[in-house]
Amino acid sequence: MYSWTEISQHNQEESCWVVIHGKVHDLTDFLDEHPGGNEVLLGLAGQDGSKCFDEVGHSDEAKTLCKKFCIGSVKTHPGGEEVLLEQVGKDATEAFEDVGHSSDARDMMKKYQVGVLHESEKSSKEEKETQSIPRVDAGDGDSSWKSWLLPIAVGVLATIAYRFFFLSQ
């Protein structure tokens, strides 16, 4: 299992790793043999090349050959990426505790910690619930027709100009 940080470091001719459908491939020795040229692979080095691989429409033989260069897979979250993305920018402590993560998962979290949020910077749940998105007051409806006034005027002027210059000839 390889992390994206690890994979991204293999992005040159001396060490060319490409991820295809979650599998990490060391294509360093295949660069000169690649029918599409080594530039294609070097352009994807250290990245996910799944989309490019699929768009080319590789043969079954190419797919089998690809397995020969597989060195592992990408480390992923067992619950999927969506679970993590839902918590971005929030205090995820409660969500983490609710799942009942193992002690291994708790130990793993330590290496991803980038800092500590001070108590004074935390906002309470009640504060978050009472905050609302500011609304724009619609007023008495005048702004609705006023927003169309300029486009209508431009359209009328364009029609008059067209008739004057092109139909009068």
Structure description:
The structure is a single chain. The protein is α+β, with helices and mostly antiparallel strands and 169 residues long. Among the domains are: 4-73, Flavocytochrome B2, Chain A, domain 1 (Roll), CATH 3.10.120.10; 77-111, no CATH class. 47% of the residues lie in helices and 11% in strands. The chain has 9 helices and 5 strands; from the N terminus they run αβββαβααβααααα. The chain starts with a helix and ends with a helix.
Features:
membrane, alpha+beta, iron, 9 helices, heme, Cyt_B5-like_heme/steroid-bd, 169 residues, five-stranded mixed beta sheet, flat, Flavocytochrome B2, Chain A, domain 1
- In CATH, the homologous superfamily of the domain at 4-73 goes by the name Cytochrome b5-like heme/steroid binding domain
What would CATH call the class of the domain at 4-73?
Alpha Beta
N- to C-terminal distance: 75 Å
What's the story with the biggest beta sheet? 5 strands, mixed
**CATH third-tier fold name of the domain at 4-73:** Flavocytochrome B2, Chain A, domain 1
Structural class, by secondary structure, is alpha+beta
Given the structure, what is the number of helices? Answer: 9
| Regions with little confidence, pLDDT below 50 for 5+ residues | none
Name of the CATH architecture of the domain at 4-73: Roll
Per the principal axes of the C-alpha atoms, what is the gross shape?
flat
The H-and-E topology, N to C, reads as HEEEHEHHEHHHHH
Helix percent band? 40-55%
Number of strands: 5
Percent strand equals 5-15%
Radius of gyration: 28 Å
GO molecular function: heme binding; metal ion binding
Subcellular location: Membrane
Region (Disordered): 118-141
Protein name: Cytochrome b5 heme-binding domain-containing protein
